[in-house]
Amino acid sequence: MNTSIQDYNNSQNDTDKEICDQLFTIIHKNLPDAENKIWHAHPVWFLEGNPIVGYHKLKKCVRLLFWSGQSFEEEKLVNEGSFKAAEFRYTSAEQINEEDLKRWLKKATEIQWDYKNIVKRKGVLERLK
């Protein structure tokens, strides 16, 4: 495990650490070629420099975020923000459905919007895949 991500997970309370550890394990297993690091203070996975999935602690939950998730057509994912991101919020590790998460991760590799160059394009997103 990336030591900075392990440090992030270890800094959570027991319930949230369990959620974070499970998310890390499933994401890492299903995205073996993705770069992972702490980005903007949270664990994020990248393909070719483009952020695709990450998680972080909010006040009452751990939020799993897919940067291109609005394009996945998954009813369990909730739209987030004004771009293409979608999220799922966890309050316990029992809520993690590995089959759903694996399907979302597969879609994350197949459906990508170019967040890497969003600043260069002045906020305009272009579809990569």
What's this model, at a glance?
This protein is α+β, with helices and mostly antiparallel strands and 129 residues long. Helix content is 29%, strand content 24%.
Give an overview of the whole structure.
With 129 residues, this protein is an alpha+beta fold. It has one domain: Alpha-Beta Complex (Aspartate Aminotransferase, domain 1), CATH 3.90.1150. The protein contains 3 helices and 6 strands. Strands 1-2-3-4-6-5 form a 6-stranded antiparallel sheet, with helices on one face. Strand 3 and strand 4 form a beta hairpin. Helix 1 runs antiparallel to helix 2. 29% of the residues are buried.
Detail the topology: elements first, then pairings.
Layout: H1 3-10, H2 14-30, E1 35-39, E2 42-47, E3 50-57, E4 62-66, E5 78-79, E6 86-90, H3 98-110
Antiparallel strand pairs: 1-2, 2-3, 3-4, 4-6, 5-6
